[in-house]
Amino acid sequence: DGPIDRAGGGRVAEVYPAAALRRWEVIAPGTSVADAAYKGDKPGRKDRRRALMTSLRSQLAGQVDVDDVTFDLCVADDDDLDAFVSALVARAVHVGLAAEIPAGMRWLALREGWIHLPVRGSLQRLGS
Questions:
Q1: Which end of the chain is more exposed for a tag (fewer CB within 10 A), N or C?
Q2: Positions of the chain with pLDDT lower than 50, given as ranges
Q3: pTM higher than 0.85, yes or no?
Q4: What does the chain look like in DSSP terms, one character per residue?
């Protein structure tokens, strides 16, 4: 298979789930880091994960089936939620709905890697 393309041009893409949720506005613009926090077991975190999954399920309707088992796993465990969001971002990269690497930064991405972020408004188009 050869070496992995650090810029994400092959079968592997580096992603940042919380940033993707912001880009898709699943986390509302202007929400503070503290108010958006969903990782861990601190009070309110499970409720935030439930709200995030409710929004994702609603916005993905007709594109990606979010069954009850997936929904419940993502609410119960922040790592499962991150894995689910990462899969959505991987889909965005695959179908060309991730932001392009600026031409002048490609050399850096090839050396250091690149965190792919979905294009704003692309969540509802992942199934196309």
A1: N
A2: none
A3: yes
A4: -----TTS-SS--EE-HHHHHHHTTSSPTT--HHHH--SSSSTTHHHHHHHHHHHHHHHHTTTS---HHHHHHHHH-HHHHHHHHHHHHHHHHHTT-BPPPPGGGHHHHHHH--EE-BPTT-GGGTT-
